[in-house]
Structure formats: C-alpha cells, structure tokens
Amino acid sequence: MKKASKAFPLKTAIAAVAVIAALFLVALSALPQSTQEKASIDVKWNSLTDAQKAADSDSPKSVEITAYQVKQSGYTQYWNNGYRSSIQALSYDTSNGLALVKETRTVNLPSGVASLAIKGTSAYLDPTSVHLSDLSGKSLSILEQNYDYDLVDGYKLLGKYIDKQVTVKSGNDTTTGTLLSSSGPVIKTSSGVTVLSGYDKIEFPSLPEGLITTPTISWLLDSQSAGSRDIEVSYLTSGINWDANYVAIANADDSKIDLQGWVSLRNDAGTTFKDAQLKLVAGDVNIVQPNAYPTYEAMDSYAGSAKRATGMTEQTFFEYHLYTLERPTTIASGQVKQVEMTSAADVGSKKEYVFDGSSSSKVAVKLSFNNTQKSGLGIALPAGKVRVYKADSTGSLQFLGEDEIDHTPKDEAVSLSIGNAFDIVGEKTTTSTEYSGSCSNRYSYNITLRNHKDSAVTVKVVEHAYGEWEVTSETAKHAKDSAYQLSWDVPVAANGAATVLYTIRTTTC
What we know:
Helix content: under 10%
Number of strands: 31
Distance between the termini: 88 Å
CATH architecture of the domain at 424-507: Sandwich
Number of helices: 5
Radius of gyration: 36 Å
Strand content: over 45%
Largest sheet: 10 strands, mixed
Oligomer: single chain
C-alpha cells in the first residue's frame, strides 16, 4: 500500500503534463497561418539552382581607397619588386600593405533570387572582409557570397584538359588527340601515344568551367523588387602601401632648411583603380597576424596647423591621422604614385657634431630641427625617409645624406644622422682601470678631438654608464642626458685640438 501511494502522485504529474502539452498544440494549430510562417525563411531552397542571373558589373561607378602605412622588410620589398604578381599565389598578406577599398556600382537586378558578379576587384583581397550594401534603400537579402580567383593560365588549361581532346601545332605538323599528361605534353592519337618536346601552340575547344580571366566576387541575392540600383562594395586588400618621403634643403650656414614632404603610394594589388578618391591613414592599427610581427607604425593623435600642399588635407581621426587628396586620381596597377603632402620654408635647424667613442671612431654629423609653429612647422609628420641636400658654390644642389624619422607629432624634435665629418677626428683612450671587489669599478678616459677645418667647431662627446655611477674627476663639466648617458660639449679651435679627461666609478651590485 505504501508503494502504491508513492507512485500515484508521479503518475498524476505525468498525466497533467501530457494534458497541458495537448492543449498547447491545439492552441498553436488555431493560430492564423501568417503568424506561424513569420519565423520561416521566405526563400525556397530548391529555387536557388534556378536563380536568375543579373548582368555582371565590370567596372565601378566610383572608388575610394584608404591606404594604411606598413613598414616592409627587405624580403617583402624584393618580392614586391615586379615579381610577386607573377610568382606568388593570390593571397591576402598584410605584410605587403593594407588598404580599404569602397566601390559604388550600378546594377540591374530582377525580382526574386538572382546571382550577381562583379569584376575588376583587387587580386589580393580578403574574402571575409567583403561587405555589400544597397544604397537605394530597397529590400535586398544576401544569401551567399563567393570569391573566385582561379585565374586562367597555360598550365591550368593543360591540367583541366587531361583526358580531353586538344590540338597541338608545331611548324607544319598538327596533332589532335587526348591529352594524357601536361608534362611534354603527352598526346594519345589513333596511331599511338606521342610525347611532344616542343610546340608552337595548343588549341583548346573552350575555356573550362571554374577558370576565370579576372578575380570575381559573386553573390546570391534575394531582391524584393526589380530594377536599377546603386550598391556599395567594400573590402580589405593587401598589395597597396604608402610611405612618406621628405626633401630637406639646407641653407649656406645650415641654420635653416626648406622641407618638402611627398606621399609615395605603391599599387601591387593587381588591378587599376580609375579616378579614385585617395585617403591615407598614419597610425598604429592592430591587425591579427599569426606568424608575423606587427608592422603598423604609431602616430600620436595631435592636430597641427600645417602648411599643406595644394589638394592634400589632414585631420585627426580616432587615434590616427587621416590625409585626403581632394581630387580624384588614377592608381594604376604596378605603379608608384607620388603626391606632395606638405611644404615649409625657412625651418630653423642646427648642425651638431657628436663623438661616441664606445661605438665609433668617427665624428657623426647630425641636423636637427623642432617641429613647432615657431620654427615654421608644427604639423604631424608621418614616418618616412628624409633626404638632405645643399647648394654648392655654383648653386647646384648636392646630396648630403639621408635618415629615417618615426611618426613625429607637433612640438617634438627631429634629429637626422647625415654622415661622418671628414675634417674632424676623435680618439678615445682608456688611461686606467681599477677593480674594487666584484661590484665596483673605476675607469679613466682621455678623449682627444682634432679639428682640421678653417673654422672652430663644438663637438658633443657622449659616454655611457650603467648601474650606479659617479664622475669622480673631469676637466670639463658634464651634462646628464639620461640615467645611462652623460656628455660634454667641447669647443675645438680651427686647425686645433682639444682634450677631455674624466674618471667614472660604477657600482653594479
């Protein structure tokens, strides 16, 4: 009896659940048919194979290119030097540059399910970044998206025609038969198997399915209405890169320079962008790159009242700087395009001689200037190479040297390493060494500077010290440049010499 009394509530509960479920199903069946179908997909999947084909779009109505600054290695530059497009597979690789491409295209779509293909895109786009939007505001659903990049070439044609009939011509001889192998090639005819060691041409009856002549993006779309409309297609692509190049012309006494900045844009994306709106981004853009080092250079977000070249404007954008060319320009495939970015005259500069005996026996020549409005600049300078020139006695410009600068916001200093002085010699000699236990050392140095110029100079002598250090004796007062660097400004007379003696005690534990 006890067992029966325990089982009764359980049976009652099961029966109650069953009754509730039955009532719910009856109520659901009573709902209007339109209410039940709201959660279903309107497109019938068996209609996809019968989708109408819209007219392909071969060229865009307008194009906007936003290029990002990528620092390339020498290896990457080598493979981009005219060889990449013919040897490397069509792969998206941001170490070869990065750009956002936005195209407006006019297409004519039928009502219902339709396939649409566009051509003339970059050969190195990231298929996962492709985005399509309908600018007309009409209802358009994207069912599928494909990127086809299996481009036709002779080797692929031969591979596609294995076990099919081809015609090979060599001089006056013509051989028609079944292609057994692309190596040779090997042809099977009615008289046997022939291996051809040379030929003039091979004729194929048609282009095999799957091979295309240009990279193509295609969609399967569901359009609620028919007619012409504008769409925007955007995607990320590699193969487009830019950098900044500067020309600095020093005056007679090196106290001022004229600075001109140029943008150099390289297009290795495998297609020409005609009449494009060009935008350039200088900034540290984070890109997920497995098995690669970050390659995007930093640019602090500072606004500047820059002296801009005609047609190029600059603005802060998020934490980057955005440069816009205010006129359309054609960016041809395999082309390096240069556009003037900035220009400033009479920028205050200073020539400096530096002797660092721990790294070189040469006296380095540096040219520095402040990126301030007071000096004639006060603008955001993207990273790039600076080439320095100066007029000789005849007024002809001569090349002095070049250096690379990092992204430099306004109100920061720029120092350029130009080369080594010919007529100034430096010599560093260790005169004594004393060890006090395992942690403390004392070193004495003699720095000799010889000036063979007909004018006096001042040489900055640099020394490096590590751990806890102290200058115990010196013949001239030093300056502490940082925790591990000190220096002396040493005047050296024309055709004369100067000497600096100093002793440093260091403690490392």
